[in-house]
Amino acid sequence: MSCTACPLHLTARTVCVEGDCHGVVQWMLDRTDILFVGEAPGEVEDVEGKPFVGESGKLLRSTVEEMGLNLRYRVRYTNAVRCRPPSNRPPGIKVSRTCRSHLEKEIKETQPKLIVALGKTAAKSLVGVDRLMDTAGKVLTYEDGTTPVLVIAHPAYILRVRGYITTWRHHLGMIKDLLSTTKQIVDYRLLDSDVVIRGVLRDFVSDKYKPVAFDYETTGLSPWLCQPISVAVCNTPGVVYAFDPEKHYIPWRRFLRTGTPKIVHSASFELSWSLRHWRAWIEGWLWDTQLFSVLEDESRPSGLKFQAVRDTTMTYIEPPVKDWSTLTIDKAWHYNCQDADATLRVYLHQIKRATTADHVRLEKWLRFIRVLVRMRERGVCRIPGLDSLSKDLLNHMGQLKVDMDHLPLVKRWRDRTGVISFSPRSPKQCKDLFFNWYCEKPLEHSRQTGEPRCNTQFL
What we know:
Blueprint: E1 20-21, E2 34-38, H1 43-48, H2 55-66, H3 69-72, E3 75-79, H4 93-110, E4 114-118, H5 120-127, H6 132-135, E5 139-141, E6 148-152, H7 155-160, H8 165-172, H9 175-178, E7 187-190, H10 194-206, E8 212-218, E9 228-236, E10 239-243, H11 249-256, E11 262-264, H12 267-278, E12 285-288, H13 289-296, H14 304-311, H15 329-353, H16 356-377, H17 384-405, H18 408-417, H19 427-437
Parallel strand pairs: 2-3, 2-4, 4-6, 7-10, 8-11, 11-12
Antiparallel strand pairs: 1-3, 5-6, 8-9, 9-10
Helix pairs in contact: 12-16, 13-16, 14-15
């Protein structure tokens, strides 16, 4: 196959190593039961032109045969990146995105019943997972909303860390059970009829014991400078409705003022926007998934995507645009539905482990947030001197970030990894830059993964 979409074709011996079936060549033309997706071809794969024929590939294929998966199911092997990177280095984000069209085409043609993402690169390409060990052994869903994706470690990792092989084999043993489970179905709808929207919201209000999760999609963070694009609401996982709140502001404002239990991911954000654009003081606060995560463990990421991938079986699609100021409802509504759906699913997971003390603390903090938002809305919290100092500091930090991007070492790192701009607030980017490129010696390592820690003490 002749492909020149990325620079890897210049160094690879075999350009675009195609997928390969286990034992029976005829199955290449038929549907696949299990599709194993790895990172990229290694040295042996590059020479032979077949995936998973090197040392790690032999470990995977032999384990599949030992478990009898190749006898009961149609098994296929492929990679997220089709050409071998020089020196087997991890492929960059830009290369993975370029190669994703080949993977999407193969999935569409083979229609697998189950996809097994082997390693971080495959998991990132398929379901947007950033932290592999947090999701290893979990079942997520591919972007089509139906195909399950099992995330496990790459067999190359097992060759390096032999103590993990028992866990890895246990994750592979989940395949037989997963192929018999019911597929997850999602129903996301964009509504434009005022009558239909009123009916949906009326049904939510009538079912007063069932909480409703909602989420705004906007052109920016500031409710004073930006505009709302869409709102998504749901009270059943997988069934979400989105509409334009500016166009249908009357039924939406009435709903916000009802006592129906409401769930959001950031109470201060949703309340500020509701007050600013619809003059609606939200009643019926029940839960804030972000606030609960912070109260539970403030050292852990509290973002919605992180919690959804960790606690649920959802697959997160990428944001619809890079420049949010150009966002339209046609691009935003599906992503908006995903956020509302994730908020409800995360809430259902959090409520199972929440104690009575957690409920009391959450309620107190929600009251405090409501007071702060009301003070800010009335101008009580705006002190000209602090606003001016904050603006100067933000401008200074922005200039420092621009200066960092122009450092020779950072420029070489960005060119090689495909990252558009270096973010000093990203521990992942800092670790890659300091430890892999600048070869700094870490002060300590993580107890769980053994990776060097880029903490405040090191910086």
